[in-house]
Specification:
Blueprint (H helix, E strand, L loop, with lengths): L3 H12 L1 H19 L10 H35 L5 H14 L12 H39 L1
Helix pairs in contact: 1-3, 1-5, 2-3, 2-5, 3-5
């Protein structure tokens, strides 16, 4: 059985996804600027273009999970603020999600402990996509000088 504080805590954790999304957006913007530099007269480097494209793909993946996390953060916050009517709002939420085709209509009802774990799983997926993007960015920054020396 979920408690009001548990729902607030999950909502608070999920809101941290916004900061992660901002970092990913900055990396994606930087990759886009570097990737488009040849349009401004810089020498075109195929490896650099490939790395920038990979950074953008990872950024888009992270953005997908960030949107899902943000939606859950708002839902958890709203339901935590109306905890005394949680059962009624849970039914309303499930109906709304089914009508919007965001969940199957015949899906069995889940308790809030399971929903909390699923929402935090989305946050972990967002973090993993950001970590992949950061790792590629760091490896690119560290590796490109060596590649330009040898190649």
């Amino acid at each position: 059985m979920a408690t009001e504080m548990q729902l607030f805590t999950v909502a608070s954790l999920l809101r941290r996804g916004r900061a992660l999304d901002c970092l990913s957006s900055a990396l994606s913007l930087l990759a886009l600027l570097i990737g488009l530099a040849p349009l401004l007269g810089a020498a075109a480097q195929p490896l650099t273009a490939l790395l920038c494209a990979l950074l953008l793909v990872l950024g888009l993946g992270q953005k997908y999970w960030a949107l899902r996390v943000a939606l859950d953060a708002e839902l958890f916050q709203r339901l935590a603020g109306r905890f005394e009517q949680l059962a009624m709002h849970t039914t309303d939420l499930d109906q709304a999600l089914a009508q919007l085709k965001l969940q199957p209509a015949n899906q069995p009802a889940r308790n809030w402990d399971d929903r909390s774990l699923a929402a935090l799983r989305l946050l972990r997926l967002q973090v993993l996509w950001l970590l992949a993007q950061l790792l590629l960015a760091v490896l690119t920054v560290l590796g490109l000088p060596w590649l330009s020396i040898t190649g």
